[in-house]
Specification:
By secondary structure, this protein is an alpha+beta fold. The chain is built from five helices and five strands; from the N terminus they run αββαβαββαα.
């Protein structure tokens, strides 16, 4: 099972692939789903609304490979103090989190990583009676 340090190493490795010609901010994420790690980086677009955050890329990779349960998310950036996940990313993570207690760890270029839970960052996220994954299975 990867440790938080292993996941941060994976997230830092992923940020090297970031495509960020507009913001200049490189972000990588690592998602633990089952016993596997899925990584992603931010990918910007000249039409800024079409840009995708590293966290969503990593979650979407896990989901596209059949995972439906996220156990932890680690985010690394080249910003000195790290960057918090946006609301859209938190909501996507929430869709596939078993509970609000999953760890979300944020690390920057300088400081030690900061540890949060999903519930701390997204209290009362949107939940339908059935998740999309449950609806598809029907």
């Amino acid at each position: 099972m990867p440790s938080p340090k292993d996941l941060m190493r994976e997230a830092r490795r992923a940020l090297r692939g970031a495509y960020a010609p507009y913001s200049g901010i490189h972000v990588g994420a690592a998602v633990l789903a089952g016993r596997r790690t899925y990584s992603g980086c931010n990918i910007e677009n000249a039409s800024l609304g079409l840009s995708v955050c590293a966290e969503r890329v990593a979650v979407f990779k896990a989901v596209s490979e059949g995972r439906r349960s996220i156990r932890a998310v680690v985010i690394a950036s080249d910003a000195p103090d790290g960057l918090m996940p946006c609301g859209a990313c938190l909501q996507v993570i929430s869709e596939f989190a078993e509970n609000g207690g999953i760890p979300i760890i944020v690390g920057g270029a300088k400081d030690e990583p900061h540890h949060y839970t999903l519930e701390q960052l997204l209290p009362g996220g949107v939940r339908l009676k059935r998740t999309v994954a449950e609806a598809i299975e029907r």
